[in-house]
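Hello support,

Our group uses your service weekly, and this is the first time we've seen a run hang past the timeout. The protein is Type III restriction-modification enzyme helicase subunit. I'm not sure whether the cause is the sequence or the server load. Input pasted verbatim:
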Amino acid sequence: MDIVKHLSNELSLRVPQRLSLVNLDSQLSRVDLFKDSSQEIEAKIGAIKFDTKFPSLCYALATGVGKTKLMGAMMLYLYQKKGLRNFFILTPGETIYTKTKANFTRGNE
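Update from on-call engineer: The timeout came from a worker crash unrelated to the input. Re-ran successfully.
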């Protein structure tokens, strides 16, 4: 079973979350995150432009779809398929930071 199906099943992802993960896999299958520069990644992927010196991801999903769960699925994907181990998560305030931190704490559902 491929990693996207595995993560989708194990995490019980909803359709919008699963489609976002499929999109991530489709885009990243064309690049080497360790060897390609941001410019090479932009050239290989096409429509994507980064406003930073590093690739960054942002998904716009409706309220209640499960963006935090999707973020966790993407982090697992990037760890398992691409070997990435460090992630920077930016939140718009302390309340959401505290909630996000709790969501990623072991044992939290």
